[in-house]
Specification:
Layout: E1 2-8, E2 12-16, E3 19-23, E4 28-29, E5 34-37, E6 40-41, E7 59-63, H1 67-76, E8 95-98, E9 110-112, E10 117-123, H2 128-134, H3 139-146, E11 151-157, E12 159-161, E13 168-170, H4 178-186
Parallel strand pairs: 7-8
Antiparallel strand pairs: 1-4, 1-8, 2-3, 5-6, 5-12, 7-11, 9-10, 9-13, 10-11
């Protein structure tokens, strides 16, 4: 298991559905190591702290294994070419990971990196900004249907992170998995 890409962005105003919206979803890979503290990566911002960021959502991780799916559906939606590789960070993630899927992540699991530790805290729930970043309106429903949401991480031990860093997964209490928590929140109300 390793970090393929370390990504960050500053919040900026963009036009979505005819209105100006502040967002930092457009993360871009950075080649250097970055400090990671209680509120996330050095130089990274979250535009809406009511739903992103904070101590329990300091870093957002997304499995690289899902990128081929998103490349295909973007091509089908005619917002990119079939052979156009998606840049890491496009889904808004700080860490593009290899080797750890949502189905293998549980709240409280700890990712031990060479110089820091991050704890799995909760799934990411997509919004209209995700649709805009992906370029088509069905992106959020597709993420919800597949459960390919990635997960937020809280910083347990501050340090530094860099692309290429290997990590090990130290199991937590294993009481609630990321897919269970995600399904519980996105499931239609039955009342």
């Amino acid at each position: 298991m390793r970090v393929l890409s370390l990504n960050r962005a500053r919040a900026q105003a963009v036009q979505i559905q005819g209105r100006s919206v502040l967002t930092a979803i457009g993360k871009r890979p950075v080649p250097e190591r970055l400090a990671v503290g209680p509120l996330g990566l050095d130089g990274d911002e979250q535009a809406d702290p009511s739903v992103h960021g904070g101590l329990s959502k300091a870093v957002y991780a997304y499995p690289a294994e899902h990128y081929p799916f998103w490349q295909t559906v973007r091509a089908q939606a005619r917002v990119s070419l079939w052979d156009e590789l998606l840049p890491h960070g496009l889904l808004g993630e700080n860490l593009t990971l290899e080797g750890l899927l949502e189905s293998q992540a549980w709240v409280g699991d700890v990712l031990r990196f060479p110089d820091c530790e991050l704890a799995v805290s909760e799934p990411r729930f997509p919004c209209f900004k995700f649709n805009a970043a992906m370029g088509f309106r069905q992106a959020t429903p597709l993420m919800q249907a597949n459960g390919w949401c990635g997960f937020y991480l809280a910083v347990r031990v501050p340090g530094t992170l860099g692309a290429g860093d290997a990590f090990e997964l130290r199991p937590g209490p294993r009481e609630v998995s990321i897919p269970e928590l995600f399904r519980a929140r996105v499931a239609p109300s039955r009342r």
